Structures are given as C-alpha cells and as structure tokens.
Amino acid sequence: MNFFESANLLGKKLRIVGHCYISGMGRKELAHLLFLILLCLFYVIGNGFGFSNSKLRETTVAMENYGERLKDNFKTDRFDSTIVDKEREHLLLAIEERIAKYLYQIPDYSYIATLETYLTYRPELLHQFPSCVPLEKGNYSLSSRYGMRTHPISKKTKTHFGIDLAAPSGKPIYASAAGTVSEVIYSENGYGIHIIIRHRFGFKTLYGHLEKVLVAKGQTIDQHELIATVGSSGSSTGFHLHYEVWKNEVKIDPRPSFNLKKTIYAEVMDIKPNTHGK
Ligand SMILES: [Zn+2]
C-alpha cells in the first residue's frame, strides 16, 4: 500500500467513525455539543478583548510614565545641558516608537491627556487627527451637543452622534485634520450633502447638511483646507454643520478635540520662549 492509498483508507475510516458518532447522538447530545462549542468560542473571543484591554492599560501606564519623565526633564534645566538634552532625546524616541500603535489603540480623546507633554515637542502630530473646530472663529455657535436629545424634526428622543454648529449659509468649512476624502454623498434626507474624510490612527470625520462640496472623492487634503460650505441640506431645520468624529468605527464626542491644537500650541509658546520670534 502506498502513501496515497493509506491516506485514503484513513480518511474513509475517520468519516465512518465521525458518521457513527454523530448519528449515534440524540438531539439532546447534539445541543450539548453545540453549546460547548459556543462556550469555547465566547471564551476565546472574550479573552481576546480582555487581552487588548490590558494591553491598552499597560501602554497607557508606560506613556504616562514617559510623559512624567519628560516633564521632569524639562524642569531640570532650562539652559539645556548635554545630559538633559540626551535624556530628552531618549524619552522622545521611546515614545515615538510606541505612539502610532497607541494612537490606533485608544478609543477616544480621554487618553490624549497622557501625551500632552510629548505633543508640545511634536505638535505637528496634531495635523494628522481631528484637533480643531472645522469652522472659522466667530462664525458659529454650538446648537446641539453629542448625546441623547429630542430630534428637532421627529421629536423622538435618540442619541445625537455628532455636534451641531449653527453658522450662516455659505460659510467656509475646513478639514479638522489631514486625510483622504473617502465619501462625497448627495442625499436629500438624513445628513443631506455630506463628506467623510479618513485620517490616520483610525480617525474619520463627517461633515453634514452642506451647501457646496469643494473636494472630490479620493482627494488628499491638509488640515484646515477648505472642503465645503455651510448649508441646510437633508433633514435640517436651519443652516448648520453637523460634525462627527469616528474612532475605530465608533462615533465619539468631538468636543474634546475642539481646543486640542490651540491648547498644545499655547504650551509650545510657553515652554520654548527662545524659539518664539526667532
Ligand atoms: Zn446634528
């Protein structure tokens, strides 16, 4: 008997055994078996999530630690001795190695506070994810927050997954971070004419109820680039921008992102008086 014949025979035997086993089982046993398989599956999936959560906690602690050391390093000497400089470079490098993965992992803006000191040294990172208001200062007022609310048209209570910024018709709307336009949708209801932009680290932004779209699908854009104008298209009761921030496909509150860039850049000016005005 050659290898193929013996493999064939083994397959046949296994099929017979399997068939006898299954057909010998009653409905009850089969239900038990299915229940056990499901239990195993839940265990594996649950453990997977637990693992990623503990990984996130671990990295957050490490990042906090680096942040504290960076702060101490700055306080040590304002006149930059070589040792202080070297230690700072070391810390910045250690954070750099981990930061992209960390930014992908975090579920919302509450984790960004951990990176505040690092961001004062690398503020250009704030161009890559939503960190500002998409409208010009003085052009808007907050008309509806993120969270539970009574819908202005349907009068039903439901979650508002974005923020409404009331603004006059035709006012310019700017991308809140660099990215690629992934959708331009012309709808008569819902969000009306709207744009979705994909950014780095699992972030996306949505701009709804637009008047005019000034970008095309697939276009690469910079932070603060003009993308559209304020309108009232779709299910809307007045001129406003409905703005959403998505993180890893979950719609999160955009509010903490509004002053992020402003705050960090104010700190940059504060800690680097020597580079100011150079
Ligand atoms: Zn809205």
Automatic annotation (TrEMBL):
<keyword id="KW-0472">Membrane</keyword>
<dbReference type="InterPro" id="IPR050570">
    <property type="entry name" value="Cell_wall_metabolism_enzyme"/>
</dbReference>
<keyword id="KW-1133">Transmembrane helix</keyword>
<protein>
    <submittedName>
        <fullName>M23 family metallopeptidase</fullName>
    </submittedName>
</protein>
<dbReference type="Pfam" id="PF01551">
    <property type="entry name" value="Peptidase_M23"/>
</dbReference>
<dbReference type="InterPro" id="IPR011055">
    <property type="entry name" value="Dup_hybrid_motif"/>
</dbReference>
<keyword id="KW-0812">Transmembrane</keyword>
<feature type="domain" description="M23ase beta-sheet core">
    <location>
        <begin position="159"/>
        <end position="254"/>
    </location>
</feature>
<dbReference type="InterPro" id="IPR016047">
    <property type="entry name" value="M23ase_b-sheet_dom"/>
</dbReference>
<dbReference type="GO" id="GO:0004222">
    <property type="term" value="F:metalloendopeptidase activity"/>
</dbReference>
<feature type="transmembrane region" description="Helical">
    <location>
        <begin position="33"/>
        <end position="51"/>
    </location>
</feature>
